[in-house]
C-alpha cells in the first residue's frame, strides 16, 4: 500500500534583497447601510497564520509591538482591531457602505514591527516599510433599500373591441436597483376588472374577457412589488384602454323618410330578423399555439336582446373553430398551422330568438 501525503507548500520568489511570499486569504461580508463600527461578519484573521516573527526580525513575536494597517483601494472604509483574548485580527466599518456604489473590496493586511513603525517620513526619507501578510476580500451584501419604479409615463391605448382573448396588448416593466430577491418583481393591477389581467411574472397586460360593444374607457393601475423583506411597492402606472368599435351599418332615420315625397319613398322589404353578412369583416389575430378549447373571441353583445349564433361557412367538419349557439364564443376546435392555413375566413349568422 502506498501512502501519499499532501504537504502545504509556501511559494516564494526572491526580488532583489526582499522576498515576496504567498499570503493567506480571508473572506468576510457586511450588509450595506450598517452603522459605522459594524463588524465584518465571517472574517477573523488568526495571528498564528501571520509570519510576524520574520518581518519584525525577532525570535519571539510577543516581544515586538506589532502594528497593522489596511492596504488597497477603499481601505479607508474599514479599520483594524485586535481581539486579544482570541489572538485574532478583525475588521469594522468606519462609515456607511452602499452596495449599489461598490459591492466588494479587495484589501491587504499590512504589518510592520515597532521599530519600523516608529520611523517618521522625514527621518527615513520615505514611509515606513509595510509588508502585506494577508489578503482580504469584503463583500457588501444587499438590503432592500430601493423601491421599484416604472421608467415610463402613464399608458393610454386604443384597442379594437374584436381583439382575440388572451392577447397581450401591452407590457409594463419596472426597475429595481437592488439585487437577488430584493430585485425580483411581481406585477398586479388595482382595481381588479374582468377584462384585463396583469401577468405577475412578466408585466404583460392580457385581454381576458370580451370588450365587444363597450364604449366607455376601462381604467386601472398597475403596481410592481419586490420579493425582499420588508417588501417594497412601486408607485402606480395608470392604464386607460379605449375600445374601438368595429364598423356598424348605418341606421335609417325615420325623420328623413317622412320629409321625402311619397313617390320617392320605398316600401321596405320584409327581412329576417338575422344578420347574414357584413360589409366590414372583423379580423382576429390568433396564435398558432392556441390550445384546443381556447376562446378567442365573444360575439356578444349584439343588437338583439336574445341572440342565437350559427356558423354558416365553412361547415363544422372543416372549420378550425366552432361557435357556441347561445353564448357567441368562438372556440378553437383543432390545431392551427400558420404555414398551411395562414388565414381562416368564417361567416357567422346572428339571429333573434324572439
Radius of gyration: 39 Å
- The parts where pLDDT drops under 50 for at least 5 residues are 1-18, 57-65, 117-126, 267-276
Q: Separation of termini?
A: 100 Å
- Average pLDDT works out at 78
The count of DSSP E runs of length 2 or more, i.e. the number of strands, is: 22
Tertiary shape: elongated
Helix content: under 10%
**Strand line-up of the largest beta sheet:** 3-9-8-5
Largest sheet: 4 strands, mixed
Give the SSE string. Answer: EEEEHEEEEHHEEEEEEEEHEEEEEE
Provide the β-strand percentage band.
25-35%
Number of helices: 4
List the helices and strands and how they pair.
Elements: E1 12-15, E2 18-21, E3 25-31, E4 45-46, H1 52-56, E5 67-71, E6 78-83, E7 88-93, E8 104-112, H2 114-117, H3 121-124, E9 131-141, E10 155-160, E11 168-171, E12 185-190, E13 196-198, E14 204-207, E15 218-226, E16 237-244, H4 254-259, E17 274-275, E18 295-298, E19 307-313, E20 321-323, E21 329-332, E22 347-352
Parallel strand pairs: 3-9, 10-16
Antiparallel strand pairs: 1-2, 4-7, 5-8, 6-7, 8-9, 11-14, 12-15, 13-14, 15-16, 17-22, 18-21, 19-22, 20-21
Amino acid at each position: 500500500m502506498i501512502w501519499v501525503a499532501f504537504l502545504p507548500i509556501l511559494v516564494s520568489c526572491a526580488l532583489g534583497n526582499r522576498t515576496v511570499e504567498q499570503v493567506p486569504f480571508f473572506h468576510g461580508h457586511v450588509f450595506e447601510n450598517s452603522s459605522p463600527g459594524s463588524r465584518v461578519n465571517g472574517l477573523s484573521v488568526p495571528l498564528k497564520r501571520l509570519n510576524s516573527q520574520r518581518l519584525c526580525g525577532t525570535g519571539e513575536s510577543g516581544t515586538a509591538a506589532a502594528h497593522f494597517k489596511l492596504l488597497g483601494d477603499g481601505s479607508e472604509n474599514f479599520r483594524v482591531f485586535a481581539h486579544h483574548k482570541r489572538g485574532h485580527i478583525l475588521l469594522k466599518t468606519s462609515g456607511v457602505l452602499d452596495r449599489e456604489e461598490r459591492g466588494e473590496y479587495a484589501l491587504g493586511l499590512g504589518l510592520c514591527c515597532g521599530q519600523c513603525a516608529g520611523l517618521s517620513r522625514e527621518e527615513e526619507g520615505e514611509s515606513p516599510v509595510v509588508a502585506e501578510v494577508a489578503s482580504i476580500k469584503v463583500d457588501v451584501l444587499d438590503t432592500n433599500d430601493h423601491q421599484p419604479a416604472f421608467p415610463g409615463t402613464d399608458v393610454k391605448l386604443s384597442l379594437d373591441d374584436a381583439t382575440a382573448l388572451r392577447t397581450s396588448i401591452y407590457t409594463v416593466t419596472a426597475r429595481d436597483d437592488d439585487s437577488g430577491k430584493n430585485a425580483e418583481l411581481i406585477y398586479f393591477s388595482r382595481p381588479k376588472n374582468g377584462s384585463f389581467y396583469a401577468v405577475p411574472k412578466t408585466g404583460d397586460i392580457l385581454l381576458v374577457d370580451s370588450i365587444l360593444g363597450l364604449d366607455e374607457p376601462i381604467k386601472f393601475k398597475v403596481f410592481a412589488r419586490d420579493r425582499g423583506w420588508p417588501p417594497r411597492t412601486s408607485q402606480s402606472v395608470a392604464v386607460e384602454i379605449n375600445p374601438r368599435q368595429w364598423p356598424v351599418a348605418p341606421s335609417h332615420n325615420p325623420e328623413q323618410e317622412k320629409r321625402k315625397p311619397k313617390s320617392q319613398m320605398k316600401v321596405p322589404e320584409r327581412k329576417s330578423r338575422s344578420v347574414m353578412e357584413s360589409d366590414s369583416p372583423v379580423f382576429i389575430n390568433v396564435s398558432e399555439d392556441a390550445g384546443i378549447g381556447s376562446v378567442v373571441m365573444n360575439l356578444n353583445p349584439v343588437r338583439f336582446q336574445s341572440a342565437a349564433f350559427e356558423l354558416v361557412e365553412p361547415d363544422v367538419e372543416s372549420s378550425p373553430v366552432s361557435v357556441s349557439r347561445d353564448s357567441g364564443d368562438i372556440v378553437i376546435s383543432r390545431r392551427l398551422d400558420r404555414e398551411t392555413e395562414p388565414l381562416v375566413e368564417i361567416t357567422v349568422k346572428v339571429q333573434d330568438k324572439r
